[in-house]
Amino acid sequence: MGNRGFQQGSFNSFRSSSSDEDLMDIPGTAMDFSMRDDVPPLDGEIEEEKSYNGGGIGSSNRMMDFLEEPIPGVGTYDDFNTIDWVREKSRDRDRHREITNKSKESTWALIHSVSDAFSGWLLMLLIGLLSGSLAGLIDISAHWMTDLKEGICTEGFWFNHEHCCWNSEHVTFEDRDKCPEWNSWSQLLISTDEGAFAYIVNYFMYVLWALLFAFLAVSLVKVFAPYACGSGIPEIKTILSGFIIRGYLGKWTLIIKTITLVLAVSSGLSLGKEGPLVHVACCCGNILCHCFNKYRKNEAKRREVLSAAAAAGVSVAFGAPIGGVLFSLEEVSYYFPLKTLWRSFFAALVAAFTLRSINPFGNSRLVLFYVEFHTPWHLFELVPFILLGIFGGLWGALFIRTNIAWCRKRKTTQLGKYPVIEVLVVTAITAILAFPNEYTRMSTSELISELFNDCGLLDSSKLCDYENRFNTSKGGELPDRPAGVGVYSAMWQLALTLILKIVITIFTFGMKIPSGLFIPSMAVGAIAGRLLGVGMEQLAYYHHDWAIFNSWCSQGADCITPGLYAMVGAAACLGGVTRMTVSLVVIMFELTGGLEYIVPLMAAAMTSKWVADALGREGIYDAHIRLNGYPFLEAKEEFAHKTLAMDVMKPRRNDPLLTVLTQDSMTVEDVETIISETTYSGFPVVVSRESQRLVGFVLRRDLIISIENARKKQDGVVSTSIIYFTEHSPPMPPYTPPTLKLRNILDLSPFTVTDLTPMEIVVDIFRKLGLRQCLVTHNGRLLGIITKKDVLKHIAQMANQDPDSILFN
């Protein structure tokens, strides 16, 4: 390749084809695992030896080790590439060591050292403040826009239904949701709220507003930020494992996700805002990282911040700071050192405090469905709690299979080309079916709050319409009572709601709008739990003399709490879908504020996980990672097959030879030709093609940037200039073009295994060190390469899955 051609092509001409994730099935591929910063440059490397350069004119001036000064772009990563964890950690250690050494030299350097140490905590403070503020804004806006579908406040259109009636002087306790200041759309348009026509007007306006909100949401996502769709948790898990998706955590994604999340929740679709709030918090963390050099220039350090931001996201989503930290540790984080644990806790604390200060629901709580129970549970109740766990596991496995099948159909058929139409059709169906039923018409968070509620004397809900036949009352607690007409009516409506939620959620999750799964899953479990709880309550009331009840449930006592069953059912279904255990129990505990219900929650969560795992090993987020072909190496799965590194490495027998560079015999033209004719993200460097003795590994991106930089800074570099990676220049005849020394971009310690290394060890190495690739040798001679994608494909092949599905889409 000529000099001129390469200059015209420039770095951008290779960028689109240099993704290491696209090369995995090509012999000689590499995923840029480089540990060059683990080996500090020797003093001799930056000195030039005149005697070896052919004795020509000004030989020392004709050589160039132009990497004495850092070159912008060297050591960075392309989009859809995996970071080098070891190199990034080594860089941070070098940076910290340099700051520590300089701090002893002057007061200013000491102040800089202290500010560097404090910057992490300051960043956590900013993430917590911004995440909590955005969560409060989303909660308030979604509450107002949800009520907008049913009517408007004449005193001020910015008031939601509840706030509108708070200061009204014409509200009775029984009809506290009705006040003259709040007008339904039929009252505004036809001046009456009675009759069939008024019902049709309200119905039409409800569907119209839902369609408008959904259309705005999907249009904004499609036009401005395609990455703002979905829950974001599968992608965040992949990013935290080291994968780079440029723009996924950018400012446009944050702005559009915040706006469209409000619109999507307000449309009445069967989705939640809790999962997307994790994405919003991680966007805040990523953007704020750019204010601090320590995190802006180091991808591994940035991922520590994103882990803490994920904890802050769950903290504001559920009002559960401790649960948020455990969620980040258990569910999303790939690398979670102790320091990140402390900072996650601090970020979650600040976020929860900020949201509490905003008080979006006006109840001094962080979530709409906070509840407190006071009745203790009995040992026999573990049986229905375990039944709820079984239901949650079955629902989770069913949902994952059907949702993944539908999403695969969306990706592989014409359906995926019409996201706006799909969203509008699902919204229309949801709104039309939801309006006639008050439990589907209300927001899902309000429904969960209603189901969790422990009925009191002053409750006017149909779920609390019991016949009041008091014989005794212990400590002010209401005894179990026979169900009234309202309870039976509510049971039928809840049964229909359960069917609708189960079916419609399958088609809603995965559409091109922000959509969380926590709230719909909790709603399904809460409905099932409330139905079972009311059934158990009535059974205990009418048959308190049965052997299973008479020892602990006497007539007139408060034995069964249906709201507790709803809470346990919610935990079971959420656990069945996500496979969370510890963090789930802590989140539910923080929602209720009751330590005594930890055992029922643990029993239901573990049962649902066991049942769901028996029917399918993957949670919903892992299933979507696999569906999208993200290069995510699951740390929880064991590799138990007896294969060797030689069985997986590339090239295989009869494949073309591995593409390599030699240490001191290739010209600039030779290297440029290899770069232009291949898509590999890196190249092994050997002593010679004959010996194949390994010297190191060099990244494609670093090669391109370094050669371009040399051409700009040194006039004598031409296509016939020799590139060498050794410490000293090779002997050259007189009057040859100047040589180009690229030793400083060479990784002198690439990770290697022998050809007989068991794959279970190789897989463990990839998981625990976050490798991008390792080289395979035999007696010091280079044989091949194993990349992360090769490992993933091999695991899929061993599990009888399609190995070609491991391709980022």
Automatic annotation (TrEMBL):
Primary gene name: CLCN5
Annotated protein name in UniProt: Chloride channel protein
Membrane-crossing residue ranges in chain numbering: 118-138, 203-228, 305-329, 379-400, 420-437, 490-510, 517-536, 564-589
Species name: Puma concolor
Subunit structure: Interacts with NEDD4 and NEDD4L.
This protein's UniProt keywords: Antiport, ATP-binding, CBS domain, Cell membrane, Chloride, Endosome, Golgi apparatus, Ion transport, Membrane, Nucleotide-binding, Repeat, Transmembrane, Transmembrane helix, Transport, Ubl conjugation
Gene Ontology CC, one term: endosome membrane
Family from the record: Belongs to the chloride channel (TC 2.A.49) family. ClC-5/CLCN5 subfamily.
Pfam families from the UniProt entry: CBS, Voltage_CLC
Membrane topology term: Multi-pass membrane protein
